[in-house]
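We emphasize that the prediction below concerns an isolated chain of 204 residues; any contacts that depend on oligomerization or on bound cofactors are therefore not represented. The input was used exactly as deposited, without trimming of termini.
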Amino acid sequence: MGDVVRPVSHGQPRARSEAGNHVLRLADGGSVHARAVVLAAGARYRKLAVQGIEALEGTSVYYAATHQEARICGTDPIAIVGGGNSAGQAAVFLAEHVSQVHLLIRGDDLGKSMSRYLVDQIEHHPRVTVHRHTEIRAVHGEKYLEAIAVEDNRTGDQDTIRVRALFVFIGAVPHTGWLADAIALDDHGFVLTGVDAIHARADG
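Result of the prediction step, given as a token string:
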């Protein structure tokens, strides 16, 4: 396996096109010319600004819902934060394993950013409860999550929900800042592909 190429993180544009090739400027001052470049920059999950939540990451606070997390949760109730497709897919999947899924969204319309087929499944699933206008204010538990304190963002009313785990699906921030002005990105910083990229080049 070859050395890892690390683009420079400061200064002028780090990637550009030149004579049909791509040119990457590196942190050591050198450069790499290539016909094609594979971008695998990754992303950072957005996290809740709730005190103490980081201490529970990996034991009962998760950013993915796979068979492994479902197995860890057993049949205990869990909570999911998020209103997009990732949160909806996690709710439907986990509801087949745990006793109760509490889906927390900040707004009132589950269909605003979630596909209709997921909304229908969630609204008709007997083990999924949707908490609208709800935000987490605190987490309780030492080594493992025991409960979450939630608040109605309209009325200020607070409640406590006992859950074994918390799944957070509130988006991600891509590591694409070094590509600014070199490759077409969307409003959230994700690399555009296909027709979207073609249109972006034409508009530019």
